[in-house]
Write a structure and sequence with these properties.
The structure holds 2 protein chains of 2 kinds. Chain A is mainly alpha-helical. Chain A contains 12 helices and 2 strands, in the order E-E-H-H-H-H-H-H-H-H-H-H-H-H. By secondary structure, chain B is α+β, with helices and mostly antiparallel strands. In chain B, 41% of the residues lie in helices and 18% in strands. In chain B, strands 6, 7, 8, 10 and 12 form a 5-stranded antiparallel β-sheet that branches. In chain B, a hairpin with a 4-residue loop joins strand 1 and strand 2. Chain B is elongated, with a radius of gyration of 32 Å. The chains are: A mainly alpha, B alpha+beta. Chains A and B meet through loops of A and strand 7 of B.
């Protein structure tokens, strides 16, 4: 490395740094005084900053999250906790009234109802949307919560019970139903005939007496003579135009042979009673809620 | 390649201007204009205007907290901010129109910068004396006298600044209430912040920046030459009559010399620090003070007035050529501006007269797009917002047209019915609406929502879509 040569520029009278590129030399102009003063002020400022705010990580992990503690004890975590506490305090006034009121009372109180729906909407997004979709529109096998077709009932109390205990969940009081697999009990052509019968009735036409008899012997005990289902058993209405899986004849036949059974977890114990009540109001408000 | 060792100067310090006191017609007009304009500024917030019990009774009020602006009979909601644009367009056109007719009449008499600077100079003169004394004091070394006079001037300036900022906040709050708060030193931080900011800006703009604002900051000063033509009123010095200028000895005859005695009265009174005898220049704000100064001198010399006068370039030319002078007010330029002005004003007036006090906004659900019900019918969900801009509580009847067999239902607290949707005075009602109908032929059928207030008033429509397939 060549020794850098500092020389004085003849035009400006300033020293050069000694660096040279293609004959172009770099001036070593001194910094303006105001700039230096600002720089020193920043250094002094930073010392004060270290004192007031948590600044340096410590090996011992002293202080909150393993760093020095500021003079005021302020951290982003304490700030977060503070603002959360503030929100909780603001919410508490509604929360108390909400918990002390029945669904009927809430439904007539504008503020509490709005409070319930807002909480329910957010809890729905966190817990329910995975299966039922963010808009509650469901998917094959996962019921659409917007429509008026309810397997276990669409009144507030019905929805509340379903939410608390789940469907085919591990809770003792779970809603439970199980359709037998008819593959071992009926002949293939019999299953076909029943599927045809269901499609025919659902679309408003008629089918054969033999199929009707097969249906009456094997299915009517749960799904009813008129195919309208029975909510006590969670037996779906087969005569309406909505299907949990599909309304095609093949799919219905497959369901008769070896039924698929969906499952919904019990939310009691996982969510607070208050949140479950909020969810109940929200689901009920989606449009299919029954009075 | 001049002296390279000299430090580069990025700016030149502009000399301070010490305008001399003057009497006369235009000074009179300026005083009257100042009193009237400042009077309007300070008193307007205290005007009352009865709007009923649900709205403030301040005639001019911009209510940020409740998102409303009031101007006498006009009430503006945030989404109607285009009225404000309209007012600004109107103001700009009025300015252009006035400029094309009378030149920089706004700059000389009505611009806040001019009015406040005038006021500050007046304070300066009361405390420190007229031009000569002020100049002397300015150039004198620091003394007790200089200190107290300067201090008093600045204290008074800051006081005026505080009054300016103090009046400004009245336009954004109920003035009598706020006045009481200010008297008790109990004002909100936001108000205090504005008072401080406007005190500072008034102090700096009228105390220090002054003519610099017109020369370097004001965009209008720069582009108004576009509105100038040969018939525009400007301040003119009659060169034919004035030159050749020079000091006049007592017994000297006027023959063979100009009427300008080079007393520099016109220069000394100029708030912009220019010499009008050099001809029309951008710095001239056309305030007419030099006319007053020159007229006073001409009166003393028993010569006719108007050596400096309001003039037009065309008149100057005619005079030079010895032709009769005439001023044409009716020019394409003035006619165009007048037409635009009238058109915008008419448009605004129409907008305000036909302004509906009911507005309807509807947002259709997108998730899910539509819901099929067990009987095969289709349901769409909508978020409904009804704006009741009147000052009374109202109920609205909602109907839909366009989709056969459509049933409507509102989801909400208690027993809200589509026949009577309640919306409080001067507020927005928010409702969840379900429309259920047998599946229409079109996957996206047009549907029209219609609301009519039961209590009377404007009804309105909203064109929406009813979706039944993807």
């Amino acid at each position: 490395m060549t020794k850098s040569t500092r020389e004085t520029d003849q035009f400006t009278g300033t020293e050069t740094t000694g660096h040279e590129w293609d004959g172009i030399k770099e001036l070593d102009t001194p910094m303006p005084r105001w700039w230096l003063i600002v720089f020193y002020i920043c250094i002094i400022w930073s010392v004060g900053y270290w004192y007031v705010y948590p600044a340096w990580p410590t090996l011992s992990g002293e202080g909150e999250r393993g760093g020095t503690v500021g003079s005021e004890g302020w951290t982003q975590y304490s700030q977060l906790a503070e603002s959360q506490a503030e929100i909780m305090a603001r919410r508490a006034t509604y929360q108390h009234d909400f918990d002390a009121s029945s669904f009927e009372q809430i439904k007539t109180n504008e503020e509490l109802y709005a409070f319930g729906l807002a909480g329910g909407k957010s809890a729905f997004g966190d817990n329910c949307a995975t299966c039922h979709g963010t808009g509650g529109a469901g998917a094959p096998g996962y019921p659409n919560l917007n429509d008026d077709d309810w397997l276990w009932g669409g009144k507030l109390d019905d929805i509340y019970t379903t939410l608390r205990f789940g469907v085919r969940s591990d809770h003792d009081e779970t809603r439970y139903s199980e359709m037998p697999a008819f593959v071992d009990m009926l002949q293939a052509n019999e299953i076909e005939a029943i599927a045809e019968h269901v499609v025919a009735i659902a679309s408003g036409s008629t089918s054969t007496d033999a199929a009707a008899t097969l249906y009456a012997d094997n299915c009517a005990s749960c799904h009813g003579d008129t195919l309208r289902g029975l909510r006590d058993f969670g037996a779906p209405d087969l005569a309406d135009s909505l299907w949990l899986y599909s309304g095609s004849k093949d799919e219905i036949a497959a369901q008769i042979r070896k039924p698929k059974h969906g499952m919904m977890p019990a939310w009691e114990g996982r969510l607070s009673p208050s949140t479950i009540r909020q969810l109940t109001l929200y689901v009920h408000s989606l449009g299919g809620g029954e009075e | 390649m001049s002296d390279l060792s000299a430090p580069n100067k990025l700016f030149a310090k502009s000399p301070r201007i010490f305008p001399k006191r003057v009497w006369g017609r235009f000074r009179q007009i300026k005083w009257v204009a100042m009193v009237v304009l400042l009077g309007i500024y300070y008193l307007a917030p205290f005007l009352r205007w009865d709007r009923g019990e649900f709205a403030p009774d301040q005639a001019i009020l911009i209510d940020m907290a409740h998102q409303r602006a009031y101007f006498f009979f006009i009430e503006i909601w945030p989404q109607e901010v285009f009225y404000l644009t309209g007012i600004l367009v109107l103001a700009a056109l009025a300015l252009f129109f006035a400029t094309s007719l009378f030149g920089r009449v706004w700059c000389g008499y009505a611009c806040p910068q001019t009015v406040w600077t005038d006021l500050f100079v007046w304070v300066e003169r009361i405390v420190q004396g007229d031009r000569a004394k002020r100049l002397k004091l300015y150039n004198a070394p620091w003394s007790l006298e200089k200190i107290w006079k300067t201090l008093l001037t600045h204290i008074l300036w800051i006081f005026i600044g505080m009054m300016t900022g103090g009046a400004w906040v009245f336009y954004f709050n109920d003035a009598p209430t706020l006045l009481e708060q200010i008297i008790h030193f109990d004002v909100p931080w936001s108000v205090l912040g504005w008072i401080v900011a406007l005190t500072g800006s008034t102090y700096v703009m009228a105390g220090f920046a002054r003519d610099q604002v017109c020369k370097y900051m004001c965009p209008y000063a720069r582009f108004q030459s576009a509105m100038f033509d040969k018939n525009t009123l400007i301040i003119g010095y009659d060169q034919e009559r004035g030159e050749k200028r020079g000091k006049k000895k007592k017994d000297e005859s006027w023959e063979g010399r100009g009427h300008c005695v080079d007393c520099t009265a016109c220069v000394q009174v100029c708030p912009m620090g220019i010499d009008i005898r050099e001809g029309l220049q951008m710095d001239c704000i056309a305030c007419g003070l030099c006319i007053d100064a020159c007229d006073n001198v001409m009166d003393k010399l028993e010569l006719p007035r108007n050596l400096i006068r309001y003039d037009t370039p065309l008149q100057q030319e005619s005079r030079k050529a010895g032709e009769p002078e005439e001023t044409k007010l009716l020019r394409p330029r003035t006619v165009y501006y007048a037409i635009f002005l009238t058109a915008v004003a008419a448009l605004m007036l129409y907008g305000l007269i036909s302004r509906s006090d009911t507005e309807l906004h509807i947002l259709r659900d997108r998730n899910p797009l539509f819901v099929q019900l067990s009987d095969g019918t289709i349901r769409n969900g909508y978020d409904l917002k009804i704006l009741n801009k009147s000052h009374e509580d109202k109920r609205f009847r909602l109907t839909v047209v366009g989709v056969e067999g459509a049933q409507i239902r509102v989801q909400g607290v208690g027993n809200v019915s589509v026949d009577a949707l309640p919306v409080y005075a001067d507020s927005i009602g928010h409702f969840r609406l379900f429309v259920t109908a047998p599946k229409p032929v079109d996957k996206r059928a047009d549907i029209e929502f219609h609301i009519a207030p039961l209590e009377g008033g404007d009804s309105t429509d909203y064109d929406g879509v009813f979706v039944s397939g993807k």
